[in-house]
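Long-time lurker. I teach an intro course on protein structure, and each term I like to show students one example going from raw sequence to a predicted 3D structure in token notation. This year I'd like something fresh instead of my usual example. Would anyone be willing to generate the tokens for the chain below so I can use it in lecture? Attribution to the forum is fine with me.
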Amino acid sequence: MITLRNIVLRRGVTDDRRLHEWRDKIEKGQTEANRKNGTITLYDPSHKPVAKYMFRRAWPCKFKGPTLDATKNEIAIEELELAHEGLERQQ
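-- Reply from a regular --
Happy to contribute to a lecture. Here you go:
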């Protein structure tokens, strides 16, 4: 049996709420209708694609908000973990 690891996405906090709205739907029990397929593309420093991964039927299973500490000068990072039913490298 193959064990699928969750996908962990990290980004600086933005005003884009789409990932949060998706997570809210899942938390309200709308799991089946809100599973998503997607692509993750990795780029080199010159912005040339070097790898592409496709995932199937993913849903948010964990969210970690930013650490807010006024005594530090750091970028606020949020983390979203996706469970999925398949991950395949395309490129």
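Some talking points for your students: The chain has a mean pLDDT of 90. Strands lie at 7-12, 36-43, 49-64, 77-83, 87-89.
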